[in-house]
Design brief:
single chain; mainly alpha; Growth Hormone, Chain: A; two-stranded antiparallel ribbon
Length: 448
């Protein structure tokens, strides 16, 4: 960890505030197809699978780019890489308005997807400004920039109505370019870059940055992020389509309702970081997965008509979530997913303080790939099954697998840490201190 002796609170707040604002704008741009894509779908008469691919394509670029953007941020600093990434993305968003065919839309979406790479730039930049015991909270606040998805869901539908989807894209491009310029003018080099410049050192090589990726632990973190972030992005893009199709809502109403999911899925990430600092990331991950399983079970249940043979004849009744209940459950789901996103990234600067860019880039890439793969899978499931709730069934399976893997991995680590307890079957949990041996005092008088 770099020395923070000369770093003031003002420096920390400047870096955190600027990065969070820039990430919010980038995330709003990254999810723009969730709104303008609905209009494009109608104009081009796209199937659900084609629409899913269009929405997912920016996520692919934003995911894959996180590896090299993270490495470049470690080498050249966030003050340089962040504005460059935003300016290039702004150009791609502006050029989007000149596209008229589906294949070219997919190519333009690849360029727009660079906006998603902003996350790992901000993580690598912000983490250099804070002490280890405060990084969870700081990165949680920065990650709240996911609220950009809610900004798009709330604002973009009305922009589309007012100026068309082309005008909406131009507005987004201009705002992103202005943000890039302001970030460069106001921000400072992070402490690591300042130290390198002072001592004339070169940045860490790419090979050294990639070395920790051989650890299975890194890939396990990435799997968690596949759901808490990848599914968040996928649902933020998919829900407007779901509301318009399953409930017949207008686009503006569907966008606002989807925003109610995106908003808690973003702003409470700071709370997740604080909880991870206070009670541990493991606790937060268990909370996230267990509540998510409950929510996804409810969302997965299709509207079903039942006929029961009663004493006086058939009794008919329906089971299913109305739009109000569906909205409420998605808000809860978004809330716990925001906590989980912070918990995953709490681990990285603690375990890999000198490799935040590469490790965070890989975790972000796998999570982002969830945002690419899942919308396509949603579209395929809808075309194949014709059941609106099928995408939530898929997410239920994903969370169930992740929960089991996490629990098994944790239990293995506990057995390694407390080898004397590996054959113990009477204890429901591990005590603070392990027993001395198989004949040790494992009774209730020591561990009630």
């Amino acid at each position: 960890m770099n020395s923070l002796e000369d770093v003031t609170r003002s420096d920390q707040y400047r870096a955190l505030g600027l990065s969070t604002f820039a990430f919010t704008i980038c995330f709003a741009v990254w999810t723009i197809f969730s709104i303008i894509g609905v209009r494009i779908k109608g104009e081009l008469s796209l199937s659900d699978t084609q629409f899913g691919l269009l929405v997912a394509t920016p996520i692919l670029t934003g995911s894959v780019s996180r590896i090299f953007l993270g490495i470049w941020t470690e080498q050249f600093g966030g003050r340089i890489i962040f504005p460059l990434q935003m300016l290039i993305t702004a150009v791609c968003v502006w050029l989007l308005t000149s596209v008229h065919t589906y294949p070219v839309f997919l190519l333009a979406a690849l360029g727009l997807g660079l906006a998603g790479g902003s996350f790992i730039i901000g993580v690598a930049y912000v983490s250099q400004w804070f002490e280890k015991e405060k990084q969870g909270t700081a990165l949680g606040i920065f990650g709240a920039g996911n609220v950009g998805a809610a900004v798009t869901n709330f604002v973009a539908p009305f922009l589309v109505v007012a100026v068309g989807w082309e005008g909406t894209a131009r507005v987004y491009a201009v705002v992103l370019a202005i943000t890039a310029v302001l970030f460069y003018l106001i921000s400072k080099d992070d402490p690591a870059q300042q130290e390198r410049k002072k001592e004339g050192k070169q940045g860490v090589s790419t090979a050294e940055q990639l070395a920790p990726l051989k650890n299975l632990q890194v890939w396990r973190f990435a799997t968690y992020y596949f759901f808490v972030f990848g599914a968040f992005v996928a649902l933020a893009s998919f829900l407007p389509r779901y509301y318009t199709g399953a409930y017949g809502l207008e686009l503006t109403t569907a966008g606002v309702f989807a925003g109610f999911y995106s908003l808690p899925g973003s702003v409470f990430r700071a709370l997740g970081g604080w909880l991870s600092d206070k009670w541990g990331a493991r606790f937060v991950m268990y909370l996230t997965f267990i509540v998510s399983l409950f929510c996804l079970f409810l969302l997965s249940y299709p509207e079903t008509a039942y006929v029961v043979s009663g004493l006086h004849g058939p009794i008919e009744f329906n089971l299913g979530l109305g739009v109000g209940a569906f909205l409420s459950v998605t808000v809860v789901l978004g809330f716990v997913m925001s906590l989980g996103k912070a918990a995953v990234y709490k681990h990285i600067p603690v375990y890999y303080p000198n490799h935040v860019g590469a490790v965070g880039g890989l975790v972000g890439m796998i999570g982002g790939l969830g945002g690419f793969v899942l919308p396509i899978a949603f579209g395929v499931l809808l075309d194949w099954t014709g059941v609106w709730t099928a995408p939530f069934m898929l997410l239920f399976i994903v969370v169930a697998v992740s929960t089991v893997w996490m629990h098994v991995a944790i239990r293995r680590m506990e057995r390694k840490h407390y080898p004397d307890l590996q054959d113990e079957t009477d204890l429901s949990d591990l005590p603070e201190d392990p027993v001395d041996g198989p004949d040790g005092p494992a009774g209730g008088d020591r561990y009630p």
